[in-house]
Amino acid sequence: MKMEESTLLLVLFLILLLCAGCVESPATTDVTPFDEQSVDACLSIVVDMSASFRERWDDRAYDLFLDISERFFTEASMGGDTKLIIGQLSGSKQVLLFEGRPQDLRRKFRGPEEFNQFLKDRSDPTGSQVFDATRRAVEHVGSVAGVSDDTKLLTVILSDMQDSHGDLQAQAKMIDSLREYAGRGGALALYFVAESEAPRWRAILDEAAFRPGYSIIENELAASPQLPRFE
């Protein structure tokens, strides 16, 4: 993958961020409620690793992942405490793969190829459980330690948003979770959405009652796509 020097530095930075996914959590026996630090900004990114989207991840979506991460942490945190969550959606029910504070993360991935392999090894390309993965992602954000009503929340899904099961019950449960997430002031960005799926997802986000400007649906993307509001 060809990158300019600045992009390479960003890759190395985010590689360090991702490393905490393999670091054991510190013991909590001596932790008091006063030790918990509030989180200023929390970014959750879910990557579609189903067969219908993997090629796009390799070609374009990885660069978008880097761009969104840099912009969000720069614009939202202003040097405060932040959390990064990474998940995947496919035929596997294992959605959440990583959670950590950027300043705590250490040694894991030596390059984007290793990170891509990490995602692929934990996914099942034979399916695409979009409704379930979206629900799990936004529900998890609400359970992150230190996240409060003042935390800036952004959930990004890189997917064509085509659910291979079409389960209406799963869709209804997802909408309920999205409505609760939106009520907390959370923002949602859906990138690479298939044109055939865009009307369905616009109706879903309307039903979830996101604030004006706090949700975005994009098909094909420019180099630096618009982010929703997350104030």
Descriptive keywords:
231 residues, globular, alpha/beta, disordered N terminus, 6 strands
Walk me through the topology.
Elements: H1 5-18, E1 41-48, H2 54-77, E2 82-89, E3 96-100, H3 112-121, H4 130-141, E4 152-158, H5 168-183, E5 187-191, H6 198-208, E6 215-217
Parallel strand pairs: 1-2, 1-4, 4-5, 5-6
Antiparallel strand pairs: 2-3
Description:
The chain contains six helices and six strands; from the N terminus they run αβαββααβαβαβ. The chain is an alpha/beta fold. Strands 3-2-1-4-5-6 form a six-stranded mixed sheet, sandwiched between helices. Strand 1 (41-48), helix 2 and strand 2 form a beta-alpha-beta unit. The longest helix is centred in the N-terminal third of the chain and has 24 residues, at 54-77.
- Gyration radius, in Å: 17 Å
SS element count, helices: 6
Approximately what portion of the residues adopt beta-strand conformation?
Answer: 15-25%
Cross-sheet strand order for the largest sheet: 3-2-1-4-5-6
Give the terminus-to-terminus CA distance: 34 Å
Query: How would a textbook summarize the main sheet?
Result: 6 strands, mixed
The helix-and-strand class reads: alpha/beta
Order of helices and strands: HEHEEHHEHEHE
Q: Write down the overall geometry.
A: globular
Runs in which pLDDT lies below 50 for 5 or more consecutive residues are 1-35
What's the rounded overall pLDDT mean?
79
- Residues in helices, as a percent range: 25-40%
Q: How many E strands?
A: 6
